[in-house]
Design a protein that fits this description.
The chain is α/β, with parallel strands linked by helices. Helices cover about 45% and strands about 15% of the residues. Helix 2 packs antiparallel against helix 3.
């Protein structure tokens, strides 16, 4: 909790702000989502998360720069650096996320994720992967934008891990629009790889406390359409990763 001792007013104020936003979010969900018909619930949840994410980014003092056209439907494939990725992307447009099943049990963020209709997947259980793929297909058919992080976990700022192909079947069938995105961060008072990226053996609460001590975060998101596609999901995974790597290299 070193960061709390260094910036006690900033951290404490932001924690109270988060608590207040959680109450507002619960009330908003009850009003706009809780009594929705099943067919209209997914888009209502996406809009709820969109509005909540915009408010959460203000707490973090985050600014976002965007390049390229923001997709509104289909499957969006993106590199994955941090839980902040979800806030940044959801704040840009209403969307549905695919996340590893551990996120469901995270404090605060897990609660938000469940209410937002996140599709959870346990990649170690084949039956659960198939269930998640069906959930993705259902969301895509409803016209939603579904965000998938094919690395399967977050990584450091300088690394893009190999893409897992198990959830790319809807994209391989070429039945829905497909887009890619590269997300990156900058900090004036810290190390992005250690203080924004959430990876290795980091623990959520200490990481979040430290992040709340920062003056602000600058996020950049670059969107593009895939240059090529494949009906083979493993080959498609390689192609999509290669394009995101090229986006990253073009900014170097």
């Amino acid at each position: 909790m070193k960061a709390w001792l260094q910036c006690p007013l900033r951290v404490t104020g932001r924690l109270f702000w988060i608590a207040g936003e959680a109450l507002v979010a619960a009330l908003s969900y009850a009003i706009h989502c809780a009594f929705r018909h099943r067919d209209s619930l997914p888009p209502a949840r996406a809009v709820w998360l969109h509005n909540l994410s915009r408010r959460m980014l203000r707490i973090l003092g985050a600014e976002t720069r965007v390049a390229g056209a923001i997709p509104s439907s289909g499957l969006l494939v993106c590199n994955h650096l941090s839980y902040v990725d979800v806030l940044v992307l959801a704040a840009l447009t209403p969307c549905v996320f695919v996340a590893k099943h551990e996120v469901k049990h995270w404090p605060v963020f897990g609660w938000f994720a469940r209410l937002a209709g996140t599709v959870f997947v346990d990649r170690e259980r084949r039956a659960q992967v198939l269930q998640a793929a069906n959930g993705i297909e259902t969301a895509l058919r409803s016209g939603a934008l579904v965000v998938l992080f094919p690395e399967g976990t977050s990584s450091g700022d300088g690394t893009i891990l190999p893409f897992k192909s198990s959830l790319l079947e809807p994209a391989a069938r070429q039945m829905h629009p497909l887009a890619v995105a590269l997300i990156q961060y900058e900090l004036d008072d810290g190390d992005v790889s250690e203080e924004v990226c959430y990876w290795k053996d980091m623990t959520l609460v200490p990481h979040l406390i430290n992040l709340l001590s920062k003056r602000g975060i600058r996020a950049s998101v670059r969107f593009a359409e895939p240059r090529e596609g494949s009906a083979d999901r493993k080959e498609l995974a390689r192609q999509l990763r290669a394009q995101i790597v090229r986006l990253k290299e073009s900014l170097s």
